[in-house]
Design goal:
Elements (H helix, E strand, L loop, with lengths): L1 H37 L2 H19 L6 H21 L9 E2 L6 E2 L4
Antiparallel strand pairs: 1-2
Helix pairs in contact: 1-2
Length: about 110
């Protein structure tokens, strides 16, 4: 199910890219030429590439990265449990399999 959602998200990004990328290229060129005229051509080239890179990165930014969210939650949980583990008040089991599933219950740290 997650793979189907990711495929649909990527297809929507590609459809949007057909419209946005030409506009982004024009914006990068305008910024590059303007900075090149004001300072020098090398800085203009860098400015244009930065605008293009940021635009493409933003275009293909994932709407919701569940793996990152899960990892961040696991790290927070590990930090919260660490004092109890150090004092031997708790034992933490890492990456336990969920029966009859491909999922696991993890804890990074």
């Amino acid at each position: 199910m997650g793979e189907a959602a990711r495929t649909a998200e990527r297809a929507a990004q590609h459809r949007l890219a057909r419209v946005v990328l030409p506009l982004l290229a024009a914006a990068a060129a305008v910024v590059g030429v303007a900075v090149g005229a004001l300072v020098n051509w090398q800085l203009g080239l860098v400015a244009g590439l930065v605008v293009a890179g940021l635009g493409v990165g933003r275009l293909y930014l994932r709407a919701h990265n569940s793996w990152w969210v899960g990892t961040a939650g696991e790290a927070r949980t590990a930090r919260l449990l660490a004092p109890l583990v150090r004092k031997r008040h708790a034992v933490v089991l890492h990456d336990r399999a969920v029966p009859n599933s491909r999922a696991n219950i993890g804890n990074s740290g």
